[in-house]
Specification:
Elements lengths: L1 E5 L4 H5 L6 E10 L2 H12 L12 E3 L27 H6 L4 E4 L5 H10 L2 E4 L5 H5 L2 E8 L8 E15 L6 H16 L1
Parallel strand pairs: 1-2, 2-3, 3-4, 4-5
Antiparallel strand pairs: 2-7, 5-7, 6-7
Length: 188
């Protein structure tokens, strides 16, 4: 099913999303990769305040390339999400509701998503130039020294993603191959 959502991403919005749904996201999305995630979690472990309010927000695992003239951002394709798995449960416990990346997630992350009513979206790897066109504004809000991996506040319009894992733990990375194999048997 195709759906459109506008951030912030509340629990009610998350509960309406099912694995396999195609979603167009508009609104504010933050960026962050492993170096930024490590810093965020280090702050939480010290009992310090985060540089961004992650409650009801989405983090896009992306390190965009530099913008060309007359562009807001360069290529903005997803990073492999598994690299953030050791940090993700702590951020979900603090109110993060969505993540965008590519690839599977650990069972620990999936259990934390179920506990915290969160969702994992997959973006198309290799389509970074097209995804970058959905970004209408980009501003570095933390860790500028990380360059392309700095935390950015993006304003996006109709950013296309698919629900890879929903808040009930339904996992497209498991469901999809099973359905494909089952449908293939019908062809014989």
């Amino acid at each position: 099913m195709k759906k459109t959502i506008t951030t912030p991403l509340t629990k009610d919005k998350v509960r309406e999303l099912r694995a396999g749904d195609i979603v167009l996201i508009s609104g504010i999305v933050y960026t962050g990769r492993d170096a930024a995630h490590k810093r965020l979690v280090d702050l939480l472990r010290k009992g310090e305040k985060l540089p961004i309010d992650i409650e009801n927000q989405i983090i896009y695992y992306v390190g965009p390339t530099p913008a060309k003239p007359n562009q807001i951002i360069g290529s903005a394709g997803p990073t492999t999400s598994g690299r953030m798995d050791k940090y993700t449960p702590m951020l979900l416990d603090r109110g993060l509701k969505g993540m965008i990346g590519k690839g599977t997630r650990s069972q620990e992350v999936i259990e934390s998503m179920k506990k915290n009513t969160a969702v994992y979206f997959a973006a198309i790897g290799g389509a970074g130039a097209l995804l970058g066109k959905c970004v209408k504004k980009s501003e570095i809000v933390a860790y500028e020294d990380l360059d392309s991996e700095a935390v950015r506040k993006l304003e996006v319009e109709n950013l296309p993603v698919i629900v890879a894992i929903d808040s009930e733990g339904n996992n497209l990375y498991e469901i999809g191959p099973e359905e494909y194999l089952h449908n293939g048997q019908d062809i014989k």
